[in-house]
């Protein structure tokens, strides 16, 4: 159904008028005027605490955003998603990653079928398999236990399991080293294979479609490498001990030659970037064990329940979605920086890049109309604190663009270097304070008191910080499987809320197709399998240089 244009809605227009004043506000003053601001503009659920008080907004802003959410039918669309309606309109698919983390007792309906039983049948198989690899009962073809797992996948079939395995390294099995090969660049495969022994390595070929060119090439290379040393007469039995697959495309797995007993299926109603909860999470179960994998799912489910039932003003994903929308739409912030103050979350920004940008990087509405008068998904980027502080925070503090930042931290560390943790948290909180407060020219003058007056005035503009730069802070007690699950689900639902407001389909990704098609053509030309086509002069020139180098 065609929605009215976002900018024509009453609440959008009220927000636009309101924003004209809000742009002039100074957060310093908002804090000074309201001693309860932190209490009023913070919320807690599923083990996560969200402080969104350091944003350029007030109670009226939130009221108008809430009205906009009602006018755009965000809660209605949320309920449709949970109910299994086919809200991915261009692929005619349901969006039910939430069903992957629902307890066994919770029936999820799709086309009149209860899919919970299918989900739990696969989870049971993941448990059996991961238990046996972890215990050492599963043996390689020469009778040795597995020591290394190589996950071959890309995009959602790589970023999720890789990010989670790194984040939960405290819980990892000491015998199992995890490796992730995603890039078609042979250096990636070369680096992984140089570190593993074929007799004790398990390969997971992870691909929702089982057609992704990079993954297929890497899978074939890994198989050829493995077969070089496996006894030719029992190659098939050897492969069965070392290759498993995760996909929705069971036929393609069979064609590849993987033992049907070693296939872990999932379903087309799970988007690639929402698939870490499915069998795509197999590396996680292998690394940390099924119990902790289950805790990850339970943490996400707790966030699902919160998102589904909490009123908007207490609803973390709704709040993050609305505040982010406000920053993007009315304060014209083109990017959002993710700053986990936790080394083990160092792949979280990369994970969120796919989650957010592949979901909301769209320029037509759900009905296919070109969006011309408002902006959609922001650029997502970032790195762990404190490293980012010594690299790009300069631009965030004093550059001409305003970039909202999400600070993420655990209150308690999983190590015993307590001084480090106090220093880490101090930096995290100090940065959000500095972004909010800035430093006025008078404060700089006070700092420089004693120096010659003309020297002070020369330095004042350079040492002044405008401040008034928005940030959220998300805190958890410890980084555990459950809090990590809740954190990922929080961002999934934030992306949902913003997609609903912008009226885009957050669940397709047609934008990646054109490059794939052109790469196939050029690959054939580079390999001499096709005559060089007429490209533009730049592409022709680049191809010619590559051919000359062979
Ligand atoms: O090309 C983009 C994409 O389709 C992502 O959406 C997906 O996560 C990734 O490629 C990998 O796809 P697959 O799991 O089917 O190999």
TrEMBL record:
Q: Where in the cell is it found?
A: Cytoplasm
Active site feature: 358 (proton donor), 390, 516
Recorded catalytic reaction(s): these are: alpha-D-glucose 6-phosphate = beta-D-fructose 6-phosphate
Question: Can you name one GO molecular function term for this protein?
Answer: glucose-6-phosphate isomerase activity
- Which Gene3D superfamilies does the protein's record reference? 1.10.1390.10, Glucose-6-phosphate isomerase like protein, domain 1
Domain of life of the source: Bacteria
Question: Keyword set for this entry?
Answer: Cytoplasm, Gluconeogenesis, Glycolysis, Isomerase
EC number(s) in its UniProt entry? 5.3.1.9
Q: In which pathway does it act?
A: Carbohydrate degradation; glycolysis; D-glyceraldehyde 3-phosphate and glycerone phosphate from D-glucose: step 2/4; Carbohydrate biosynthesis; gluconeogenesis
Provide the top EC class.
Answer: isomerase
Pfam families documented for this protein? PGI
Q: Output the InterPro entries linked to this UniProt entry.
A: G6P_Isomerase, G6P_Isomerase_C, Phosphoglucose_isomerase_CS, SIS_dom_sf, SIS_PGI_1, SIS_PGI_2
**NCBIfam families in the record:** PRK00179.1
Tell me the PANTHER family matching this sequence.
GLUCOSE-6-PHOSPHATE ISOMERASE
Role description: Catalyzes the reversible isomerization of glucose-6-phosphate to fructose-6-phosphate.
Q: Which family does the record claim for this protein?
A: Belongs to the GPI family.
Question: Under which name does UniProt file this protein?
Answer: Glucose-6-phosphate isomerase
Give the source lineage, highest ranks first. Answer: Bacteria, Pseudomonadati, Pseudomonadota, Betaproteobacteria, Burkholderiales
